[in-house]
Amino acid sequence: MNEKILGINWDSNNIPTLPSVAHKLIFAAGEGETGIAEIATIIEQDPSLALKVLKAANSAFYALNLEITSIKHATVLLGMDEVKKLALGFLLASNFLSVSKQIAKEAEALWKHLLATAVFAQDLQQGGEQDPDLYTLGLLHDLGWLVLMSEYPDTYKKIANWNTTLFEAENELGIDHQLWGAKLAEKWGLPEPFQVVNFRHHYPCRELASPRYLLQMHIANYLADKAGFIAVRPDSTPLDPCAVQGLGLDDDTMEEMEQACLNESGRIEELWEIMTG
Question: 191 vs 23, 26, 98, CA distance in Å?
Fold first, then answer.
């Protein structure tokens, strides 16, 4: 751990908070009609959010060729998970992009990285009932950068444009974004997987056993960088072979995945436009 790490005042008003609607969506459960009604009710608590979701559902991105007039209607047609992802995307984008003008460009790059990681992580989802939602984990895996942007915007701008490895840049500037991200996830009351992913997404196999979702998030984070959606300019942490092996992948599969993610770049940009438009 860096002994010269910058101090963070966790009681500061600058530390971001998680919107209550986002918190409810993350913890929302249920299947069938009950789940649809629950998600619709949560979203409708925020009229501005509901309007954004309806606008997105009626956009050319989904090309449904019919008018969607209510959140419940959107949830039935698009699926509960898709509407939940849209709503979370809108809410979290407002958090990650509500920064000083001096780092607006860097905040945009971070948000695109988060969105790409979420989409690529979703592709790795196995579908087990006990598995955490990898899409949501992807959107929230880099909370430490949000802490740095809020507390030390000048330092965030520096590291976002630093010309060295991420490890060297953090060491030089007194940053530990993984530690800070885990702390913020804890402060927000998020489940353990969010804390684990924030704390270990660059080095998933150090010291402790690695849950499957952590290996998946490490690879999704790597793929987002390979596709050009880089949060900060220093070289990203190399792909850890243990993550590849732990998921039963091989070199040929990884090459195919990297190419597929490059081909998804346009879709990521479209999602970005929807969630920030």
Answer: 11, 9, 25
